[in-house]
Design a protein that fits this description.
oxidoreductase activity; about 300 residues; 2 domains; ubiquinone; five-stranded parallel sheet
Length: about 300
Amino acid sequence: MTKVTVAEEWLNACAGCEIAILNVGDVLVDLLVNNLDFVHIPVILDKKYFGQTGEEEHLSIPEAVVGIVSGGVRNEEHKEVLLEMRKKCQILIALGTCATDGGIPAMINMYSDEELKKFTYKDSPTTDPADYPTEHIPPLLDQCYALDELVKVDLYLPGCPPHPDWIAGAVLALLEGKTEYRMPEKSVCDACPTIRESKKGLADIKRMLSAPEFDPEKPLDEMRCLLEQGFLCLGPVTGVGCGGKEGAPRCISARVPCRGCYGPVRKGAKPLVDYMGALASVGFDPNKMPDRRGYLARFSGAHGTLKRPVRR
């Protein structure tokens, strides 16, 4: 069997998605030995953009059947790399919520570039104030974009990071000649085993500054729903998948609310809007919710979801 060539890149990201690829484990080893040939993956292999000795004039990435890109697009360098990946790869996979929906980095879309630079180089409590750098810094784009806002994406694998089950499933599907591979369009609540009582009149909205009610000696399916206990759990508007194909949601398993890292339940959904209805359904007053935009859309700020407020 001819090996399938794979190119992988990371843009506005943290390398957690690349670690998730390695966490596929034995399946990955079998795939690498028998079926896959990674021709480009900078986080692991030494591959220069302009030739190994800088002899080339233009950025170049090897041609590959499958391209995997993690991270969103925030500056001109990210954009250039993404366009080259799309040009050189037959199938492009958006890996991780930063790539599919902007992720945490897209929260910057609520602020101007000047506010970003001022905080980073002058106002941050952990930074000694300094002048703005002017050399070797790629120009910023006007906002942080998800991949499909700039190029065609063939397959989406959200998560922060994606569970190895879905990565292995996608690669295996591609090796079998299946170009369609979709995450289930279900919410975290659909996979959550906690007890729902649907009591009305819960007036307070709480962050995790106090412990929820549960018995650590009893299984998860004997704990009452964290949202019904008054905690900001984003399970109703977050896509399922963090527990893999069979496991319970990871945050819920740790007795803490879902933080929304798998992004919207389906393409085009708006957690920021949908969660208001979820709160009302269990008796909360949405007007009492602190930091609606930053909390509810902290993993899905691309696609125009988070914008800078209009100054009047």
